[in-house]
Amino acid sequence: MAKLFRLTTAIFFLSVTCHRLSRAAYPIGVNYGTVADNLPPPSQVATFLKTKTTIDRVKIFDANPDILRAFAGTGIAVTVTVGNGDIVSLSKLPAAQSWVSANILPFYPKTLINRIAVGNEILATSDKTLIARLLPAMKALHSALQLANVTKVQVTTPHSLGILSSSEPPSTGRFRRGYDRVIFAPILEFHRQTKSAFMVNPYPYFGFSAKTLNYALFKPNAGVFDAATGINYTNMFDAQMDAVYSAMKKVGYEDVDIVVGETGWPSVGDPTQPDVNVENAVSYNGNLVRHVNSGKGTPLMPNRKFETYIFALFNEDLKPSTSERNFGLFKPDLTPVYSVGVLRNEPAGGPAPASPSPTTPSTSSGKKWCVPRSDANDVALQANIDYVCSRQVDCKPIRAGGACFNPDTVRSHAAYAMNAYYQAFGRHDYDCDFNNTGAITAVDPSYEECTYPEDATSVRLLEKKSVTGGSRSPHRKSNDLFMGFCCFLFAYFILS
Fold it and tell me: Which one is catalytic: 121, 307, 346, 449?
């Protein structure tokens, strides 16, 4: 009996260990974007990823508290993002400490936050102030984490391949002149000192031509020969990664780890984009998954595994162009657009059938809510709170002791306030504009004891006060002008 118990225990231990190792060895993550009005609730997304896929890490483009709460206890690692608009203020330690206190400490370690991405492709903005403040913000956030005794959360920043002045062939890869020693060497030194990864966003999709399509898609091709190294590259992803490595080596930091923050291929494009289709999306993303998971690395970085985040988890219907709206691996109802081998017990293959999902959230009621856009920064959202709470809307639910006070973050409070305003003042699209920081969703954002109003009757309005010289909502100015003009015309015709 004792021998049987020991054998059973050993088998259980080995199975758990092997399961953990198999998941840890799988370096594919996904970018969880939310620029859409039809996505399922974060809790449903977290459960889906944990139970139905092999994806064990996600990258989000903000520090959305609803998403961070949803991933608590799942074991799925989450990379959060600081908005570009917050970089300047966070370059000072006190502000960085406040940000960490509001956006990391309430959720960590129950939610496995593994990284903070500071901004997104800052060099591509050409904003000299942001570029100059980027590294100070990274350092301040790292110091804030250390002071809070959070030692396992890395700090990094994503870069487009526009940081390179040369990339073909890969051995010629170098950072843009003027930025190599002044910007990138100090950033790479920070990564070396803090043992964090340099994050890049290689997109063969943006670099291919008709002649190099197969090269971009990992399909059979003649390859591109690099005479300096004698290497014949057979796929553009490896070439782009090795160009980044060559640039890092030229400034003396080839030992720093690299993380692929974004890469992907859309499944639908405009009529002028014949190579944007499901077949090519399957080829790129499916081959990418197999290639990265093989552990082969690249010709200049053999046997190196790259933590890689596919763009994107969902098709996002509020993106500006057809191709941008169709980068997703999954539709909003959680059915796959196509299969690339991330579903459990399913190999990478062709397009998967889009069958109805039993867990699809019901939106047939026609109810809508107003929430902050994922790229809205805290300064703009605080202004929204201040405006709403001065316009008769009862903001007690987001005050201390209120049902929606926790989590005590600007984004969470703004979500409630913006929605309350939207419901109370007409539920028109412009009532959720807030200077382009609001988005309408059909998914109820309510959580726990916090119930979001869903119509005018569920919003408590305070007694109207006489205010002289008060500010007006920027998103209502054009409507007010129009109404004023209509009143003028009406009066003119009546009196004439």
Answer: 121
